[in-house]
Amino acid sequence: MTKLTADEGMPGAKPGGAQAWARSTAVPPAPPRPSRLYRLIASVSRPIVQKVYRLRVRGLDNVPGQGGFVVAANHISNLDPWPLGIALWPRPLHFMVKHEAWWPPLKWLLAAVGTFPVRRGEGDAKAIRTAIGLCREGRVMAMFPEGTRRAKGLRKKHLPRPHSGAAWIALEAQVPLIPAAIDGMDRLSRLGPVRLLFGPGVPLEDLKQLDTRSAADEATRRLWAEIQRLEGELDADV
């Protein structure tokens, strides 16, 4: 498998050779334990999310029970990581945080809960390599392909073009790519309900003969179509 270089890892990189995306037959590593701070935040916030905001989660049977994977969701609020983390507890999630927020003392808190900085819009190869390494260690990367939260009231036909970082990470790390849809995080003043729906893993095996760029683009197209389908399913259940 071609490895990422300093000039690869995000949209805009030059295509590589044929990639062997087939999954490893090795036994997945055991899920890592969350940090003490992560456990503390989870223990305090779980009752709030589940009882006050009435978190409703479906599709957990689509989420791998062990081994690393990438979960990618729509992005409607800065608090979107909250229901994802609660739903997948006790597995700790890792997130990329914009570099502008990475300053003391906030960066020490962010690092303690498993996040790391990314320079948005610059094809940050270091952040991508970090994410790939985490997935290979059996950890979970949570991504928002839209890159930034959706403007309130934005119509679906005007949604921004999704970025391919989530697909790129899953392909390079050879881990499942799990789509998800979140609803209600932009209406917390109404006290929920907050709803979260996980879909089946995006098919990646048939992309193994494509070059890096083409494989990531097609995987992203499939991922985004599935996220939109899941959003539609949530809308239909209102």
Question: What is the structure about, briefly put?
Answer:
With 238 residues, the protein is α/β, with parallel strands linked by helices.
Textual characterization of the structure:
There is one protein chain. This protein has 238 residues and is of the alpha/beta class. It has one domain. 32% of the residues lie in helices and 14% in strands. It has six helices and seven strands. The protein has helices at residues 36-52, 81-87, 106-112, 125-136, 165-173, 212-236, and strands at residues 56-58, 69-73, 93-98, 115-118, 140-143, 177-183, 195-198. Strands 1-7-6-2-5-3-4 form a seven-stranded mixed beta sheet, sandwiched between helices. The protein is globular and about 50 Å long.
Main sheet record: 7 strands, mixed
In total, the number of strands is 7
Give helix % range: 25-40%
Rg to the nearest angstrom? 17 Å
Range of strand content: 5-15%
Cα-to-Cα separation, first versus last residue: 45 Å
Tally the structural domains: 1
Going across the biggest sheet, name each strand in turn. Answer: 1-7-6-2-5-3-4
Computed structural class: alpha/beta
Shape call: globular
- Poorly predicted ranges: 1-27
Mean pLDDT: 83
- Helix and strand sequence: HEEHEHEHEHEEH
Number of helices: 6
